[in-house]
């Protein structure tokens, strides 16, 4: 076990977790046992990851920005980053729309199944609708207003306010660059050291990752609803998965073409982050590991990764936008609605914006899906149709979200001449 590389250990943890969950839920007492004695360890693991997220963003972004000798570099990096993020998100939505229009998974659902699904998940869907309604009432500039915190400590208190923390960190970093080094070096040294410490903590947390994902998956399987409902949604699931696969291939081709790095090298470096994203369903919780992998194992300079990745974790959700497009059309199909080209173009715009607005936490993509549905005139109650399979799809789309962020960081680094040799060849073996 000691010799196994980290991603294999995580994979083993996942497989054992699913098997254990399936076996134990055959017994009446099994579910209670998992909920009370196994799930808490999964929760602790996620909490530790979240615990580190805000300090990491602060330290790494402040360090990253203050390392830039001149501020114009920030705007060239910012422009490329946002441009690439938008481009990949629009590509993702387009791939999703194309596949769902070819496969047409919604046309296969029988009236019986539809009624069954709608009644089973109606209350869960209603809860998501009310959260989304509050977001919909806000004006068009609300997102901009929300970006700027009025109190940094309040912003840091809530892991959902990552963009505000990012805003503060960049602003603070700019301040450091603008004052003479003689005065700024105390603060700069402090954040440099803080950054190192946090990266070390991530190393320690990763030792526990295989056990954490075991607990998470065992609990997930034990809590799952009946298998019949899963079957009815099989084709829809396959459609989303196929789209996510195409998106991943798109990244791999981009990375190979633009950076010249081999696909195997990229996948080997990033796989622990992908597996963790899969297990936690949260890009924010995975951020510390994505950051470490990209820097140490893929050779992206810290200047770039500490800027590109935290922003990506919050605004670049290609897996989510692809899923939202497929889900919206799927729901329309099950209700027998024919979406016009105009309506589908509208979905491209709203799914892009909705994925940017989705928080990097489990289930957030589904909350924002309500807005996509409302915009396209698709009945929001249709959310109930896809509830049963949302969690497994969330796991997969989160892995794609993280892969997208990592790919963009490699490309931006290449363009800025900041892609070097990885510091660690195969540090996996140390875990
Ligand atoms: N769970 C996703 C993430 O954290 C967001 C979502 O699609 O629900 O990236």
Instruction: Report the span from N to C terminus.
Output: 10 Å
Largest sheet: none
What class do helices, strands and sheet pairing give?
mainly alpha
Number of domains: 1
Describe the structure.
The structure is a single chain. The protein is mainly alpha-helical. The chain has one domain: Proton glutamate symport protein (Orthogonal Bundle), CATH 1.10.3860.10. The chain has 19 helices and no strands. The protein binds aspartic acid (ASP). The site of aspartic acid (ASP) has 16 residues, from helix 17 and helix 19.
Topology summary:
Blueprint: H1 6-24, H2 30-67, H3 72-103, H4 111-137, H5 142-147, H6 152-157, H7 162-178, H8 181-207, H9 209-223, H10 227-232, H11 234-259, H12 263-280, H13 283-297, H14 302-315, H15 318-334, H16 341-357, H17 364-376, H18 383-386, H19 390-415
Helix pairs in contact: 1-9, 1-12, 2-7, 2-8, 2-9, 2-13, 2-14, 3-11, 3-14, 3-15, 3-16, 3-19, 4-17, 11-15, 11-19, 12-13, 12-19, 13-14, 13-19, 14-19, 15-16, 15-17, 15-19, 16-17
Aspartic acid (ASP) binds at residues 281-283, 317, 320, 358, 360-365, 394, 397-398, 401.
């Amino acid at each position: 076990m000691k010799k196994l590389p980290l991603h294999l250990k995580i994979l083993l943890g996942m497989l054992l977790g699913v098997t254990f969950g399936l076996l134990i839920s055959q017994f009446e007492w099994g579910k209670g046992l998992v909920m009370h004695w196994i799930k808490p360890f999964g929760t602790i693991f996620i909490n530790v990851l979240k615990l580190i997220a805000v300090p990491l963003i602060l330290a790494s972004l402040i360090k990253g920005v203050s390392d830039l000798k001149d501020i114009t570099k920030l705007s060239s990096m910012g422009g490329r980053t946002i441009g690439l993020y938008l481009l990949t998100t629009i590509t993702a939505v387009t791939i999703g729309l194309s596949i769902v229009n070819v496969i047409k998974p919604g046309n296969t659902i029988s009236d019986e199944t539809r009624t069954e699904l709608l009644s089973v998940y109606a209350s869960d869907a209603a809860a998501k609708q009310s959260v989304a309604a509050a977001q919909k009432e806000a004006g068009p500039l609300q997102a901009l207003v929300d970006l700027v915190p009025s109190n940094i400590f309040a912003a840091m208190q809530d892991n959902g306010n990552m963009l505000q923390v990012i805003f503060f960190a960049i602003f603070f970093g700019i301040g450091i660059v603008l004052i003479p080094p003689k005065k700024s070096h105390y603060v700069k040294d402090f954040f440099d050291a803080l950054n190192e410490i946090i990266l070390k903590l991530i190393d320690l947390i990763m030792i526990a990752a295989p056990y954490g994902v075991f607990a998470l998956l065992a609990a997930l399987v034990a809590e799952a609803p009946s298998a019949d409902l899963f079957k009815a949604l099989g084709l829809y699931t396959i459609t989303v998965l196929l789209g996510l696969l195409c998106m991943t291939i798109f990244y791999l081709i981009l990375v190979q073409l633009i950076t010249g790095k081999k696909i195997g090298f990229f996948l080997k470096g990033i796989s622990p982050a992908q597996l963790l994203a899969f297990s936690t369903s949260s890009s924010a919780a995975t951020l510390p590991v994505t950051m470490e992998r990209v820097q140490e194992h893929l050779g992206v300079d810290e200047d770039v990764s500490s800027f590109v990745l935290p922003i990506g974790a919050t605004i670049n959700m290609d897996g989510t936008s692809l899923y939202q497009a497929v889900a919206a059309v799927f729901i329309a199909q099950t209700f027998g609605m024919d979406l016009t080209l105009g309506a589908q173009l509208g979905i491209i715009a709203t799914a892009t914006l909705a994925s940017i607005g989705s928080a990097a936490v489990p289930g957030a993509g589904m909350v924002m899906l309500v807005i996509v549905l409302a915009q396209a005139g698709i009945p929001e109650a249709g959310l109930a149709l896809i509830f049963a399979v949302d969690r497994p799809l969330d796991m997969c789309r989160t892995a794609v979200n993280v892969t997208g962020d990592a790919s963009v960081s490699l490309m931006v680094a290449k363009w800025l001449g900041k892609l070097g040799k990885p510091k660690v060849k195969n540090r996996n073996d140390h875990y």
